[in-house]
Each structure stands twice: as C-alpha cells, then as structure tokens.
Amino acid sequence: MNRAHVASTAIRLGRFWSMLKATLGGALIAASIAAVPANASETKGFLVSWFDISQFYDTEGRNCPHGINPGPEEYYIRELKRIGTPQEEIDHYIDNFLDLSQAGEIAPMVQMRGRIDGKPVDVYANPTSVPDPNIFLVEGPHSYGFNLDGKESTGGFIDPETGEKGIDNQIFKAVGCTQEIRQHAPDEYPPLTISYWGVVVEVMPALLIEISGIDDPVNDDDVTVSIIRGQERPVRDSSGGLLAGMSFSVDPNPKWHNVLKGQIRDGVITTTPTNINIATDPFVMPEHNFTDARLRLKIQEDGTLDGKLGGYHKWFPFYWKYGVGTWGVEATNNIDLPGFYYALRKLADAYPDPETGENTSISVAFQIDAVPAFVIREEQSAQNGRVLRSVSGN
What we know:
It is built from nine helices and 17 strands. The protein is of the alpha+beta class. The protein folds into two domains: 1-36; 43-69 and 135-392, no CATH class. The strands form four sheets. An eight-stranded antiparallel β-barrel has the order 1-6-7-9-10-12-13-15.
C-alpha cells in the first residue's frame, strides 16, 4: 500500500469519525437536555464565617450620647471605695491590677467586692451583691434586626437597611456602649468578639447553611433554608479567613437540624418564624437557642452570603459568656460585669417568669457572614438499606 493510498484512507476514516462523533455528540447532548427538568431547582451551601450580635455603627455619634462606659480604673476605684477600702490600698491596686505577676494578691480585692449579709462574696457569681452601676446603654434610633412582636410601639429602633420600624434588638442596647464589645467602624467587628470567635471557629464543628428549592434567585415564593451543624471543622485560607469550597458532612443529631420555610423577593431571602438551635463551643457559649426566630439573607455577587438572624434568646447566657472569665475579662476588656448583668436583666423583653414576672429572654439580631461550601447529606434508603448521599454547593 503506497503513501497516497494510506493518506486517502486516513482522510476518509477521519471524515467518518468526525461525522460519527458529531452524530453521537448531538444525540448525547439532546439526551442530556431532555434529562434535565426545564425548571430544575437549585441548592446552595455555605459555611458560616462570622456569627455574633449585629450592631449598627453610628457615624453621627447618637448611639452613646453620654459617652462610652469607663474602664476598670474608674469602676474599680468606685467599688473599692464603696466597700471601705483604704485609699493607699486602692492606689496600689490601680497601679498594679494589670500586673499578672501580682494577680494572686490583687485580683481577690475586686472579685470579692460583693456583699451578702455583710460578708464578702464573689461578685461574678453573685452580680446583684453590688448596687446597679447603671452602665451607659445605646440610645440611638437605628439598629439592624426585626420587628419581632409586630408592634411599632415597642423595640424603638428603625432598621437602616429595610426602613422597618419597631425593631426589637435589646441586646444591642446592652453592648453598644462598652468599648471592647462595641463596633468601632462600619467594616470592623468588636475587638473582644474577634478574639473569642477566632478561637472557637477553629475548634468547633462547622456551622452550615443550605438554601434549597431555588427556582428563581430574584423572586421565588417557596424556598427552604436549613441551618445545620457539620461534623468536620473548618480551616483557614492564606489570608486568615475561612477557606471556601470545602465539603462538610451533616451531623445526624436532629437537634441541630433547623429547617425554615421562606421566600425570595428582589434577591432577598426571608423566612417565617420558628425556633432555632445552634451549637457553638463551651469556650464562649455551648449553644444558642432562639425562639420566634427568622432570617434575612442575601447571596452577594461574589457568592458569599450576608444576613441577619433575629429572635428572642435567654439573656443570662450572654452575661455568663463574659462573666465566666471573671476578673481577667473585666480588668482587661473594660466590661463592668455586674453592670452588664443588670443591663441585660433590665432590657429583657420577652417570656416572663410565671413566678417573678421578670422577663427571661431578650430580643436579639445576629450578623451572619458565610462563604460557599459543599454540604453532604447521607440518608439510609428504606427500600434496600443503602446509604444515599446528596451534595449541595455553589
């Protein structure tokens, strides 16, 4: 067989295979199109990268008209004088209270400043053993959140994003004028909260959000939002943020499966009220239990998720989040812990105790930031016992 015949044969075979591939390819494409429903719903998964109290940064200075709550130099002097401490001891304490080498000597002076029946008690375990110092609270007109009770006459805030009135976010009033737990700039998180979150986010299982049933990302009458605990821990990327695009399997414990029905209007997802349970970490707060809770979420152009969670929450855990740190937290983070306790108790606005009449819960709004992730669910088939796996992501 000469070279010309070989070339001719090769050309004919090449044309044959080209025609065959075109025919088969077209058939496969057509079959693929036919196999996909015309209105297939979309599901998106996210890893929560920030979760804490939502605060409105007031550029006009109306949040705290009386100023920021003073630091320990002021409230320790006040409290030591109240219990009759000699001035020279007060001076020695103020000069040395941050010297950790002397902590064993000086910490008990303020830790035991409480008095019950005239006897010294641990003020962090017994915050009402000192008088209410009436710390400064937020008085500004704006706060992110929700009108939880449907009344414009309560709550008192206006949401700067939605314009809704009667926003209930009393926890913001409590934290918004205390230096280390207040927001210092529009794009910054509170300093102490950053420290806490930076520790727990690397050791607690991932907090996941899954949005399913998306037929139209702009307007959709029926979507489902799930807040779920993962089984794996997140990791950080090179910039220090949480790594996007990771895969997380779902914790099978039903307590951490929160399913909310919602809708999308103009690209904003809102959900109907329900109860939400979220596991965090014992270092900060073992779990968050929200009642009458709802979400407002928006998927950004870069694929990240930005949103708010609003509802009612027992107020005492917010005190103990910092109170468990006792003198170390109070002395180094400008938090008058008994004052914070009193503020939370006074601002509590829901679920009164049937015996005392005091409200046990406080209205809250939490900021949620999240990055794209893959959520892996495993379910056992009732027919053949096989484990079925589904994956949602971006």
